[in-house]
Amino acid sequence: MVLYGYRFSSCSWRVRAALHLKRIPFEERQVDIVKNLSHLTEEYKLINPAQKVPTLIIDGETLVESMAILQYLEDTRPQPSLTPAKPLPKARMREICEIIVSGIQPLQNIGLRQLFASEEKYLQNGRDVCERGLQTLETLLKKTAGTYCVGDKITMADLCLVPQMFNATNRFKVKADKYLIVTKLYRKLLEEEVFQVTHPKNLSPK
User: Fold this and answer.
1) How are beta strands 2-5 and 61-64 bridged, if at all?
2) How far is residue 48's CA from residue 4's CA, in Å, rounded to a whole number?
3) At what angle do helices 119-144 and 87-101 cross, to 10 degrees?
4) Across the strands, what pairs with 131?
5) The CA-based dihedral angle spanning residues 105, 108, 113, 114, taken in that order and rounded to the nearest 10 degrees
6) Who's near 107: CB < 8 A, 6+ residues apart?
7) Closest Cα to residue 124, out of 112, 142, 136?
8) Residues 166-200: pLDDT tens digits?
9) First to last CA, the chain
10) What is the pLDDT of residues 133-153, one digit of tens each?
11) What are the C-alpha distances in Å from 50 to residues 1, 36, 163?
């Protein structure tokens, strides 16, 4: 298995964490989407036509888009499961995932930087997007949170929450303490072995 990713990419981190939880051996090859822009090379375009990260080579196939990859891993390597068994908790998990992967992450993506007149305007937009999303998450998590985002088991929702909170608090300097449930979960999850091992600060840039 080969994961093409960028260590600070929240999408890549989701997949990296899932592979670790499911004990799937893999090699991660760094694709620098910030400085070297190696995702824009013709070589990488042959691997991923969208020229984004992550890309996972698995079972002789090439998969793109983090949530599609997570679902494939869940379908083909179901243990340990990353989705609740019952329909309602499963739907709640997907609500949380969608708020993050559709409602926050694309609207503050580093690829949007060029659309803003200055770095500060880009960062302010990112802060605003994160704040709106975190407020929504705080409300949703009042219904679902246990030890983790949905009950007492790590799910895809947690794999989405941790990278997004890391970006919000580090790249965009969001003061997240006012989101009490979100912050409590984030701090708890950062202590989990899976997020320690897969944390971007613990990965080589190459």
Assistant:
1) unpaired
2) 9
3) 170
4) none
5) 80
6) 125, 129
7) 112
8) 999 999 999 999 999 999 999 999 999 999 999 99
9) 17
10) 999 999 999 999 999 999 999
11) 20, 17, 21
